[in-house]
TrEMBL record:
Organism of this sequence: Gordonia sp. MP11Mi
Keyword Lipoprotein attached: no
Enzyme type, top EC level: oxidoreductase
Statement: the UniProt record of this protein carries the keyword Acyltransferase: no
PROSITE patterns: ADH_SHORT
EC number: 1.-.-.-
Keywords (A to Z) from UniProt: NAD, Oxidoreductase
Record-level Gene Ontology MF annotations: oxidoreductase activity
Similarity remark: Belongs to the short-chain dehydrogenases/reductases (SDR) family.
SUPFAM superfamilies with a match to the protein in the record: NAD(P)-binding Rossmann-fold domains
Protein name: NAD-dependent oxidoreductase
One matching Pfam family: adh_short_C2
Superkingdom of the organism of origin: Bacteria
């Protein structure tokens, strides 16, 4: 028997990268998968954006695991859209058990390069989008009688990410949001935890992302080594982050809530 047989999971930012890895891994553990992704351009991001074809590929991979999927194109900044997806998920499969608020953006910019739009978009997607995800799904988890909500934060949500005041702010906000939701939803047997990746080998590193990070590092080279892992490998695979998500989604973590699980090779301590 698989760890999530008979259960249903909803994942945001599901088209590729970590979101795809979470969806496929949870499907492998037995869950049907609902998901959402903007799958289109986002202002100011230096890496390649996800596409509808990416979303379709995630659906194919989920179904290759023998599970059903319902993946839609949409924006986590739209609460009504998320409420509709959550309701459609329950209508299709009769329940909702696991929620992974994964959608997020990362824009390298020194403090004086950052603009009001960069700051607002980062907070709107990373923070408000996660809040929307919980608000849209928690009532259905309450109806199920239990559940696991997993917010994808970052190394930047425990320490800080140099040259990304906006991103660091957003990921620290998710750390606090995790604790606050865990406190109130615990009365309904719903656990809320956060996962904190360091560097991850994913499409977020595509396009101009690496060169843009190098440019911002030049503003203060002393800060550039921050976040270096203790292990010999610099970046985690998306599957290694999905391992942590699968653990928190399963009954193996049934008495763990309000916890902040790092998958960063020790980078938060460097």
């Amino acid at each position: 028997m698989k760890r999530l047989d008979g259960r249903v999971a909803l994942v945001t930012g599901v088209a590729r990268g970590q979101g795809r890895a979470h969806a496929v891994r949870l499907a492998r553990e037995g869950a049907h998968i609902a998901g959402i992704d903007i799958a289109g351009p986002i202002d100011n991001i230096p890496y390649d954006h996800a596409t509808p074809d990416d979303l379709a590929e995630t659906a194919r991979l989920v179904e290759a695991e023998g599970r059903e999927s319902m993946l839609v194109q949409g924006d986590v900044r739209d609460l009504a859209n998320l409420k509709k997806l959550a309701a459609d998920t329950v209508q299709k499969w009769g329940r909702l058990d696991v929620v992974v608020a994964n959608a997020g953006i990362c824009i390298p910019a020194t403090w004086d390069e950052s603009t009001p739009k960069i700051f607002q978009d980062t907070l709107d997607i990373n923070v408000t989008g996660s809040w929307n995800t919980v608000m849209a799904t928690a009532p259905h988890l309450i109806d199920t009688g239990r559940g696991s909500i997993i917010l994808i934060s970052s190394y930047a949500g425990k320490k800080m990410q140099p040259f990304m005041v906006h991103y660091t702010t957003s990921k620290h906000a998710l750390t606090g949001m995790t604790r606050a939701f865990a406190a109130e939803l615990g009365a309904h047997n719903i656990r809320v935890n956060s996962v904190h990746p360091g560097a991850v080998d994913s499409p977020m590193g595509s396009g101009r992302m690496q060169s843009r990070i190098a440019e911002t590092n030049e503003a203060n080279p002393r800060l550039a080594p921050m976040g270096t892992p203790f292990l010999n490998k610099y970046a985690a695979s998306t599957d290694q982050i999905a391992d942590a998500v699968a653990f928190l989604a399963s009954d193996e973590s049934s008495f763990i809530t309000a916890e902040h699980l790092s998958v960063d090779g020790g980078a938060q301590y460097f």
